[in-house]
Design goal:
Elements lengths: L2 E3 L1 H25 L7 H21 L8 E3 L1 H10 L1 H16 L6 H26 L7 H14 L20 H25 L3 H20 L14 H8 L1 E2 L8 E2 L1 H18 L1 H11 L1 H6 L4 H27 L10 H11 L11 H20 L4 H26 L1
Antiparallel strand pairs: 1-2, 3-4
Length: 406
């Protein structure tokens, strides 16, 4: 037994749901129940987003605007594809019941701030996943960018300066140097993969070890001698610590959020509106067909890793600015979280499938779960167990979809 719903009816229904959520939020706001904290405001924001998004899609129907057939198979596929999201919503509900303070605008902004650099790393690593590869050097490249940029951006009066005689450089100079060094290691990854057809797992594993060793040697240079790098300049720290629109009881929006938003839009444009982006999907979908179609696979693979490393470098610089310091251990394990977030967000390990919106969702899922579990004082060891279960489920779902496709 199945029924068919037109795309227009579906979008109208969702717009109605969004409007209903806004109305309910307004009612709760005027009732002013203290234990709800900022839940009414959050509901209004979410409702407006649902309403606006579906209203836009009503007026601008895309390629996927056909009728929706509802039957047991499509419902099962829907539940399977969004299993992680559904589980996250249930978990957030439980956390809100256990600890109502979780329903605060401040908490939402903290989650968005923590997601910002993670999102930039995930956007970089998604390029390597689209070609059915990976990048195990991402975390170490993040750490390298943090150490290199911070070492040249310390105040003149700091007692333990990395370069005691270095003049105060313009802010952008050390940042560009750090990102270019990262891109050089990305070029090494790309060269090994493109020139020798080395599997990205092995190529990036080798580069990861090289990067960490090089970063540690640099970090150990006298007079620093492996001491944590601190005393960063105020203009550098402002890159990661500035709060926008702060005041009148509003906690402010971290500058990292708009920076991540701009980079996200740029990557969406690259993937969806440029020849390079189409070539990335082509190589990931079917390498042999891409060669026949005239795609320069060598150059595409090379540039993928260079671009990815550049994004890791930006994330490393921002992370160092946010924490106002760096050590050679920065970024350790970041690549695994980024890969996991991408897979949860629907990026296929088999290659050829990825959406920027899915990656955003994947990053937020992981950040919300991690932040929420910390909020209710769940042991870090249990957090790792839960994270591992999520990764296993996400990969199992991805493999299941791949088997059905073939």
């Amino acid at each position: 037994m199945s029924s068919v719903i037109t795309q227009q009816s579906f979008r109208k229904s969702l717009s109605g749901v969004g409007a209903l959520i806004v109305l309910l939020g307004l009612v709760l706001h005027f009732v002013a129940i203290k234990t709800l904290y900022d839940l009414p405001v959050i509901m209004m924001i979410v409702g407006l987003w649902i309403f606006g998004q579906n209203l836009y899609r009503l007026k601008h129907p895309g390629a996927h605007s056909g009728d929706i057939e509802l039957n047991s198979k499509t419902i099962n596929n829907l539940l399977t594809n969004y299993a992680i999201i559904i589980a996250m919503v249930v978990l957030v509900f439980i956390i809100c019941v256990l600890q109502p303070r979780f329903m605060q605008i401040r908490v939402v902004l903290d989650i968005m701030t923590q997601s910002s650099t993670k999102l930039i790393i995930a956007l970089g690593i998604c390029f390597t996943l689209i070609i059915a590869g990976c990048d195990l050097s991402a975390g170490r490249i993040v750490g390298l960018a943090a150490v290199v940029s911070t070492s040249m951006l310390q105040t003149e009066d700091y007692a333990n300066r990395f370069f005691p005689d270095l003049a105060q450089l313009p802010l952008f100079v050390p940042i560009i140097i750090a990102i270019l060094i990262c891109m050089a290691f990305g070029a090494l990854n790309g060269f090994l993969v493109a020139q020798y057809e080395m599997h990205p797992f092995i190529a990036t594993l080798a580069t990861s070890v090289i990067v960490y060793g090089s970063c540690s040697l640099y970090f150990d240079l006298p007079p620093n001698n492996s001491q944590p790098i601190g005393g960063v300049r105020p203009d550098f720290a402002a890159l990661g610590q500035t709060k926008l629109f702060q005041g009148a009881g509003f906690p402010g929006i971290s500058v990292l959020i708009p920076i991540a938003a701009v980079i996200t839009v740029a990557i969406w444009f690259v993937l969806n509106k440029t020849v390079f982006g189409k070539n990335v999907y082509a190589v990931g979908g079917n390498r042999e067909a891409a060669v026949v179609a005239g795609v320069n696979v060598y150059a595409t693979n090379l540039f993928i890793f260079v671009l990815a490393a550049g994004l890791y470098g930006i994330a490393g610089v921002l992370e160092a600015a946010r924490t106002a310091g760096a050590t050679n251990q920065y970024g350790m394990g970041y690549e695994l979280d980024a890969i996991a977030a991408c897979v949860v967000g629907g990026v296929s390990l088999m290659g050829g499938i990825a959406t920027v919106s899915g990656i955003i969702a994947g990053v937020f899922v992981f950040t919300i779960i991690q932040y929420g579990l910390q909020f209710i004082s769940i042991s870090p060891m249990w957090q790792q167990v839960i994270k591992g279960i999520i990764i296993a489920i996400a990969v199992a779902i991805d493999m299941g979809k791949y088997r059905k496709k073939n």
